[in-house]
Amino acid sequence: MRTRDFTDQASFPPAQEKRQHLRFDKVFPVRVESILFGEQDCVARNVSAGGIFLEMSEPLPLGVRVRVSFLSADNSAEIVALGEVKNHYFMNFAKQGLTHSVSGMAVRFYAFENESQQILADCLDRFRVLN
């Protein structure tokens, strides 16, 4: 019987990318609203057409439905998406020799208000051209 050496990363099959949408790292302020948990201001760390990662010291419970609003990249329009909290994350990292941590939640979008879906798509297209 052959055993795997778990210290050798080459023994693991390559991970498959499960994301359906191209994700852009972009830090910007966001307002999150929930019927049960009220309104909170937080920071987005990345966004895609299908969802967003929100940095929060106390993420909302999994499954909670939220309304997420933020300004377009050029601050000309408000984007409002309805979503559901799908994952929680807690990350430790080192920066300039100091240890830091970030906690937050991933929200998957399921609907948009007004023209928000098209506005977000246009913004993401511009990010793709600039990057």
CATH topology: Thrombin, subunit H
Tell me the CATH superfamily: predicted glycosyltransferase like domains
* Overall outline: globular
Total domains: 1
SS class? mainly beta
Strands side by side in the biggest sheet: 1-2-3-6-5-4
Question: Span between N and C termini?
Answer: 49 Å
Radius of gyration: 18 Å
* Tally of DSSP β-strands: 6
| Arithmetic mean pLDDT | 83
The helix content is 10-25%
Q: What fraction of residues sit in β-strands?
A: over 45%
Question: How many helical elements?
Answer: 1
Quickly describe the structure.
This protein is mainly beta and 131 residues long. It has 1 helix and 6 strands.
